[in-house]
Amino acid sequence: DTAVSQTPKYLVTQMGNDKSIKCEQNLGHDTMYWYKQDSKKFLKIMFSYNNKELIINETVPNRFSPKSPDKAHLNLHINSLELGDSAVYFCASSQDRAGYEQYFGPGTRLTVT
Amino acid sequence: TQLLEQSPQFLSIQEGENLTVYCNSSSVFSSLQWYRQEPGEGPVLLVTVVTGGEVKKLKRLTFQFGDARKDSSLHITAAQPGDTGLYLCAGFYSSASKIIFGSGTRLSIRP
Q: How many CB atoms lie within 10 A of CB B12?
């Protein structure tokens, strides 16, 4: 069974569109994260939720809105997509907010044309 | 701005050689983690170090946390092609529940 899963794996869309990426973890973890990895492979945290509560909200355009319907799911919705949003987005989870042993999903490669 | 700098950025060596990758910051971390990422996949945790001066071994990989908890190193003995990948360090600040990742070291081991 996949521990942290993301859908879709690939997403190609045009500028101005709105899209969502879904993430689910079956590890029973309390904390989930969204990261963005750019073309230079730099991995930057965007958001973190602990038991459905937002605990990390880095400087990210408000076009990005995370939603956690329950502690096993953390979705990312992006409005008015821009070329600069093209990147690989990773979801991750950890047992608690201490952040030890983060388990990453396979990533969603978003391409905005 | 809190930064975690890794060096070298790229490293290509022959199978059987030894190597060391460094992760440096001016900030003190509660803990530091090392991950390895292969193309098309997410990072996979290798180790977490918590105590200043701590040394952990994972087969041919040796990880050390600096005494002041500002830096770390990863040493690989007798590198093998299977060690090829992107190595990332990540520092955690428990007071702020904040994590930052290093700039990454891309390692290539030639057979």
A: 11
- Pick from B1, B29, B34, B101 the residue to mutate for testing the A interface (most A CBs within 10 Å): B101
Low-confidence ranges of chain A (pLDDT < 70): 1, 99-100
B3 touches chain A (CB under 8 A): no
Cβ of residue A105 closer than 8 Å to a chain B Cβ: yes
With an 8 Å Cβ cutoff, are A107 and B97 in contact?
Answer: no
Is A92 in Cβ contact with B42 (below 8 Å)? Answer: yes
Residue with tokens 């073309």: A39
8 A C-beta contact, residue B53 and residue B4: no
Interatomic CA distance for residues B31 and A63, integer angstroms? 32
For residue range B65-85, list pLDDT tens digits in order: 999 999 999 999 999 999 999
B101 with A106: Cβ contact below 8 A: no
Q: Mention every residue, 6+ apart, whose C-beta is less than 8 A from residue B51.
A: B65
Could you write out the DSSP letters of every residue in A30-90?
SEEEEEEE-TT--EEEEEEEETTEEEEE-S--TTEEEEEEETTEEEEEE-S--GGG-EEEE
Which residue type is seen at A44?
K
